[in-house]
Write a structure and sequence with these properties.
- The protein is mostly beta strands.
- Strands 1, 2, 3, 4, 5, 6 and 7 form a 7-stranded mixed beta sheet that branches. A 7-stranded mixed beta sheet has the order 9-8-13-14-12-11-10, covered by helices on one side.
- Strand 13 and strand 14 form a beta hairpin.
- The N and C termini lie far apart (about 85 Å).
- This is DUF4377 domain-containing protein.
- InterPro entries: DUF4377.
- Keywords: Signal.
- It holds the Pfam family DUF4377.
Length: about 190
């Protein structure tokens, strides 16, 4: 009898403990607009990141770095997307984990950007003239790729790009979309 009573008390204590646990997670449905190109940046390491606008910021001038992924979303360079997503704020994230998770609910729109539209991508930067951070790689004498693997067609600017890379200069590229999910470099800044 004592064993049953102790077991019953332990069982009730466990139920109360589980029932009293509240989730710190908060979920809401939001609309995101995703830009037609990624921008260079650094989270845990250098990479290319989506540029997004959320809710009231949509169709404004400012785009924000999006360091998270969107579960179920397959991004394609050269398109502006409007998405309905589930945004889950993690109340107690792991030390090296993100504090927000996104999950695609619906792709509301996908618009191809005209190939003559120009845009800038940071290709490298320097810090205090002592640290150089490139956001692209040179795979052979005239082939360049962004860190996410996007091919750069540098045409007549390959030599100038190679020189700037060799002297570890801060570089911004002006691009247009070209065939096969690559980018055409039209100017260097």
């Amino acid at each position: 009898m004592k064993f049953i009573s102790f077991s019953m008390i332990l069982f009730i204590a466990c139920l109360i403990s589980v029932a009293s646990c509240t989730s710190d997670d908060d979920v809401e449905i939001v609309t995101l607009k995703v830009n037609h190109y990624k921008q260079s940046g650094n989270a845990l390491m250098p990479n290319q990141f989506l540029l997004v606008q959320e809710e009231a910021a949509i169709d404004g001038d400012d785009w924000y770095f999006f360091y998270s992924g969107i579960e179920g979303f397959d991004y394609e360079l050269g398109y502006v997307y409007t998405l309905k997503v589930e945004k889950e704020i993690i109340g107690n994230p792991m030390a090296d984990g993100g504090s927000i998770n996104y999950k695609l609910i619906e792709e509301i729109g996908k618009e191809k950007v005209a190939s003559e539209i120009s845009f800038e991508i940071l290709l490298s930067r320097t810090y205090d003239d002592s640290f150089f951070e490139p956001f692209f790689t040179k795979t052979d004498h005239s082939t360049f790729k962004l860190l996410d693997g996007t091919q750069i067609d540098c045409a007549n600017l390959c030599d100038e790009l190679t020189e700037k890379l060799a002297v570890k200069e801060a570089i911004t590229g002006v691009f247009q979309h070209s065939e096969n999910n690559s980018l055409e470099l039209t100017a260097l800044k």
